Structures are given as C-alpha cells and as structure tokens.
Amino acid sequence: MGESNISRRTMLGLVGGAGVAVGVAGTSLALGPSGVAQAADVSAPISFYGTHQAGITTPAQDRLHFASFDLITKSRDDLIALLRAWSAAAAQMTAGHPAGATGAVDGHPAAPPDDTGEALDLPPGGLTLTIGFGPSMFDGRFGLADRKPAALAELPHFVGDALRPEISDGDLCVQACAYDPQVAVHAIRNLARIGFGKVSVRWSQLGFGRTSATTRDQVTPRNMMGFKDGTNNIKAEDTQLLDEHVWVPQGDGPAWMTGGSYMVTRRIRMTIETWDRTSLAEQEGVIGRTKKAGAPMHATGEFDELDFEAKGPDGKPATPMDAHVRLAHHTQAKGARILRRGYNFADGSDGLGRLDAGLFFIAYQRDPRTGFVPIQQNLGGDALNEYIRHVGSGLFACPPGVAGPGGFWGEGLFA
Amino acid sequence: MNTPRTRMIAAGAFAATAVLGLAACGDKADDKGGASNEIAVTATDSECKLDKTQLSTGNYTFVVENKGAQVTEFYIYGENDVIVGEVENVAPGLTRKLSVPLKSGTFQGTCKPGMVGDGIRTPITVTGDDAVAADDAELSAAVATYKTYVATQADELVKLTEQFTTAVKKGDLDEAKRLYPLAREPWERIEPVAEIFGDLDPLIDGREADLAQGQEFTGFHKLEKDLWIGKDIKDSGPIADRLIADVKTIAEKAKGAELSAAQVGNGAKELLDEVAATKMTGEEDVFSHTDLWDINANVSGAQQAIEALRPVLAKRDAAFLGTLDTAFKTVNDTLAKYKSGDGWKLHNELTQTELKELSDVVNALAEPLSHVGAKVLPTQ
C-alpha cells in the first residue's frame, strides 16, 4: 500500500504542501457517506466534534501519547470546569491551533504563554484526543456513584497478570494519537498543564508505531515480535460489526454512554530477547500465522480465512491448539470481538540490559464483559504467554462525541 | 539554589520587565513598581537645581546631592505647603534619595541649607492621569512592604548563620547539625532576591552536583557534607568563616535591592520552582535530607510576597487571589502532616505516594503563581 511506503522525506514534503489546503482538507479523514474512510492525509485535521469521539474508528495514526490522570480535587464543579476547559483546548489543538485564549506567543510578554509552543509551525497531524472515565471516578467523590455503568465492572485477574498499580488504572485518561509524535506529546502536555490542581498524571505511555489497521486501506503493521498484528481487526468499514461490538447502543446501560465505547488498555511487556532466539517455525506456531505474509498456517494470503479444522501434512491441526490466533479468535471466545488500536513501545532498557519494549494494547468494545474479558480469559493457555507479561492495565468508559462548540466531554454524565 | 538554567530564565524575565517599561511609558518612570525615574537634585548653600521639572504622573526618586557647605534637607511641597516627601540631614558631600509618587498638580522642590527657613524653591509641574499615579502608589507600597520583609529575613539570616558557623568552628557536631536547617530557613524565604547577586549565590548555596570542574565546593552544602557524611568538622573552619562573610555581604545587598512589584511576584513563582526542581526530589539537602525545612521556608517566602501584593491583587483580580489563597492553604495543610517536633520529617522518611501528593499541591500553587508577575505590572 502506498501510504506506509512514503518515506519520511516525502511525508515532510506533503506536510509542507498541505499548509494551504488544511482548511478545506478538514474533513477528509471522516467517514464518507458510504461509510468508507478516505486515505489518510498525515497532516490534515480531524474534526473533534461528532456523534462518536474521534480516535476510535479514525484510521490509526502512527504515534501515541496516552496519559492516565487521578483527580486530586474533590469538587464536582472543578471536574466539570476541567472537562469544559479540556474540551475547548482539545477542539483547538485537533484543529491545529495552540491552546488557550492567547496561544503560545500572543499573550502578555510578562506572563507565561497559554500554550507551550512546541507544535507551532506543525500541521494538525491528524491529532485525535479521546477521553475515558475510569471506574474510580464513580466512587462517590463527585456524586456519580449511581451513574456508573455496569460494564465498567473491575476486570478479573487473568492468568499471568503481573500488574503494577503505579502504571495501572486512573480516574480519567486521554488517548492522543497523531502522525507526528511532537503533536501528540504537545496535546497531552497542555492538557496536563490545564489540569494542574485538579488532576495529577498517574502514568503515561508513548507509543511509536501503530500495531493495528482500523480501515481496509491501511497496511497491517507489525508488532515488536515482527508479526503482522490486527489482520482480523474490526475495521471502520464494518459498520454492522461496529454497531454490534464497539458502539454502545441506546438502552445498553446509562443513557450518557449511548454512542460511546469502553476502552481497555494493557501494557504488555515482551521478553524480546528470548523471543528472538526462538526458531522461525516455533514463532509461527506460537502466533498461528506465517511471519512473512501474516497468512493462516494452512493458507498463503494474509486475509485468507482462518480454518481451525485444517490439518497440516503431519495430520495435526495446522493452527496449533495453543496458538495465539486460535485462542483470541471470536469463534473460540464466545463470539467476543473488539476493535484493537494498540501501539508498539520501547521505553529504553531495563537494569539487565534488556529492551523494555512491547505492546501498549488498546481495545474498544461495547462491553468489556463480553469483549476483552472472555478473550483474555481464553488466552490463559496461550503459547505466547511464555514471551509476554501484562504489567499495566486500564479500563475506561469513553463517552459519546461532543456535538459542537460549547459542549464538553461527558456532558451527559453531569446532566 | 537554582540550576543555571532556571537562573537564566529568571534573568530573562527581569530583562523583559525593563523592555516593557521602556516601550510603554516613554519618558515616564521606567519601572513604576519600585525603582523609579530618577531626578538629580543639586543642592548648594544658595541653589536648588532639579534636572527635570516638567513631569508626568508616576513614581519618582529625587537624588539629592549636597554640594554646599551646610547640612541640608530636601522637601517636596504640594498645595498650601503640604509635605509630600522629605529627606533630612543630607551632610555636605553626601547624596541621599527621596522616592515619592506624584499626582498631577504643582509642587515645590525645596532645599533647606542649614535646615531652617522656607528654603530655596523650584516649581515642579506634574500632568497626566491620576489613576495611574494612585496605582503606582499602591505598587510602591506593596514593594515597600516586601522590602521590609526582606530586611527582617536578611538580619535573621546573618544571626542564625553566625550561630551555625560558630558551632562548626567549636567542633560541636550535634549543635551544628541542629542549626544547619534553621540557618537555611531565612535564606530560603528570600532566595530570589539573593540570586540577583549572581556571584555570591553559588558560593553560599551551591550544590556539589552543580559544580563545574575545578570549582571549589563551599558554603552551606559543603558544611552539610562535612557534618553528615564526613562527620568531621575540625578542618571546616575556613569554609565556615567564608560562609558567614559571604552571607553578611549578600544580606546587606539584599536589603538595598531595588525591586518592582512584578519582580516580587516572579520571586514568589521562583520559590515554588525551587521546591519543584530540587527539593521535591531531595537533591537540595542530599546529605542531611532536611529538604522539608527548605520547602516550608520557600512556601512561606512566596506567601509573604503575595501578602505584600494582596491589596493590588485584590483590586485587580479578586477571584485569582482567592485561587492563590486556596492553593497556599492546601500546600500548608499538606506540609503540616510532616511536622515533627519543632521541625519536619526528613525527605527520605516520606513515601513516594506522600511525595507525589506534595508535588501535586505544589504544582497546583505554582501554576497560578506564575501569572502574578504579569498581573501586578503598572497600568499604562
């Protein structure tokens, strides 16, 4: 596919040339009337407003900065004021403008600027900002206990979980995705600054490469294990699947979540070094797909249907019984389907000289109890578990989109 | 102390204030919050010459030089000889200063050689907006309040540092360790003022980690290391002598420092930056772990700056002042949890969770504090 073959230099060229066209290109990434996503323009803005939040079915951008926040205020009014201020800043930044009334350089010279400035001169970069509310926000501090959706039930313990509380959970989260990492980091940094005194960053995560395609015209990217990831993902074009498995329909829990979705995040550390010294055949058996094409073990094309009954030349199942794709597949996991939107990460190395790398898994679904949970439970016997460890976890209710200027994230929750 | 980077930023802020003033005020006081437009007054036994007599409303400092043979006085009289300002006992050969805010009207600059009679009078005409003059007077009053505070703390600094260095020289390890965090408190309350005198700050408060190659390790933190790590102060005498000498010099300079209201406000912000940058991490008092003494002193110094500016802030942005008050209260309440006896818990006795909570409330205060400087600029 063309897009991923564009060199960095060409991309920069595109970016430069897009400056003038930004205004008219504003909606080029939105779903067209047919529900088919347009080709990604890496510099254009994506509208902040809409029925659903952007950043879910939006063609997965290349970079991520994800932040989880704890509310340190005890005031409901503060929380509402924060969501208003964040929504206003998010609308400005996703349009490619600086945050605040006077931006980065047009305020009073004796005062610190409203915006931190590192995104000046950069195009909007396909920035999307997606908010989620964690279960702990509904603990009674803000009078929201009776509005907690049942779907926001605490995740059960899964086999092999090695979760660290300091990089798990949070009252709120913001997922910032963009084609330029500086644009994504700028957005989180400015939201955190606006939030000082009301929220405190609990943990944050940078992702340097998308691991999922969320539209048909995106190439399936590879994860840190070198395998194509997300071949069978729900795509933006699968509108029926989206309605069935991703978007919260009316009557499904509290009304304020209608049009929203539930997000599960998992920081999955990969023991890359041991994986790398595993034979190709074993790697392919663990995943259940070929490494080069990403094809099922019994087929040749990436998008050929998985047939779990297919036998290999030795008469054994072509896709091993403990292969990752088998156990994760909806036909094997109570029909559960999720929209994956994860990112590769590499946060330097650990004290033993090993890369601290892996997958920052993000999944959207209508209800985690019938989405991520049964899949992850089914993965208890996954051959892949030898090479991965879940060290961080998050669960968030992502409200519907903000209808237009003046509205704010989660407005319905406070109505 | 500040890292070199923060100091550079601070210097930038000062420069910006000056440029602003010039651009905005033309021939008016170039920094109306404090240091103001100077008018040279040459007093002799027979003359009283002012180098400017047509003024616009604002703050002025009359620099009175007595070139006569008699002791003189200088007065500014308003209508009906109401005294607007005076400076007495200017001996021959001496120069003294008189700072006054001037509203519109006619005034008499008056020298009184021999300090008797009606004096030699030079009329001064002031034109312009009186609201601006009133505003200037408020800013000047705020600065004056803060300068009084600086003077008190400078005296306290000398007193306590003297006790500390005396204990060091006596070889009294326990007493010196007890006094170390106490002597630092007045320093930490007014450090942004001390930092104006850039060469002395590193000698007094330089951290070992900030030394350039070949630079000598002196001051509080060298003695801190001798006390807590070396546990031996028999060779620390010369460092102690130098510390008290440097502290005396900087205390005098700090008392005489000319400040603007914006500088007072920025100083409060810098104090909180100090907390966030090196004290929250325990890098300031890395040997003694007495960072909480410093943190509390930084916060109380910032609070005094805001107290001085309170009348101005109350008028200009009462809601903002309310935000500051709430944020100060939260920081103080949070700090209070770590009181221990007459002092504080050690930095390494706080858990990561406790430090994070403290860091959060410090950030919540520092963010609005960063806007104080711009809010107390002179009205144009």
UniProtKB/TrEMBL annotation, chain A:
Residues 97-118 are annotated as: Disordered. Residues 53-208 form the Dyp-type peroxidase N-terminal domain. Binds 1 heme b (iron(II)-protoporphyrin IX) group non-covalently per subunit. It comes from the Bacteria. GO terms for cellular component: cell envelope; cytosol. It is found in: Cell envelope. Its cofactor is heme b. Residues 220-402 form the Dyp-type peroxidase C-terminal domain. It catalyses: heme b + 2 H(+) = protoporphyrin IX + Fe(2+). It is an enzyme of class 1 (oxidoreductase). GO terms for biological process: iron import into cell. It holds the Pfam family Dyp_perox_N. Its EC number is 1.11.1.-. Keywords: Heme, Iron, Lyase, Metal-binding, Oxidoreductase, Peroxidase, Signal. InterPro entries: Dimeric_a/b-barrel, Dyp_perox_C, Dyp_perox_N, Dyp_peroxidase, EfeB/EfeN, TAT_signal. GO terms for molecular function: ferrochelatase activity; heme binding; metal ion binding; peroxidase activity. PANTHER family: DEFERROCHELATASE, DEFERROCHELATASE/PEROXIDASE. Involved in the recovery of exogenous heme iron. Extracts iron from heme while preserving the protoporphyrin ring intact. Belongs to the DyP-type peroxidase family. This is Deferrochelatase. It comes from Actinorhabdospora filicis. The lineage of its organism: Bacteria, Bacillati, Actinomycetota, Actinomycetes, Micromonosporales.
Automatic annotation (TrEMBL), chain B:
The gene is ycdO. Residues 22-125 form the EfeO-type cupredoxin-like domain. This is Lipoprotein. PANTHER family: IRON UPTAKE SYSTEM COMPONENT EFEO. Pfam families: Cupredoxin_1, Peptidase_M75. Residues 142-370 form the Imelysin-like domain. Coiled coil: none annotated. It comes from Actinorhabdospora filicis. NCBIfam families: EfeO (NF041757). The keyword Magnesium does not apply. It is found in: Periplasm. Belongs to the EfeM/EfeO family. The lineage of its organism: Bacteria, Bacillati, Actinomycetota, Actinomycetes, Micromonosporales. Gene3D superfamilies: M75 peptidase, HXXE motif. InterPro entries: EfeM/EfeO_iron_uptake, EfeO_Cupredoxin, Imelysin-like, Imelysin-like_EfeO/Algp7, Imelysin_sf, Iron_uptake_EfeM/EfeO. Keywords: Lipoprotein, Signal. Residues 1-23 form the signal peptide.
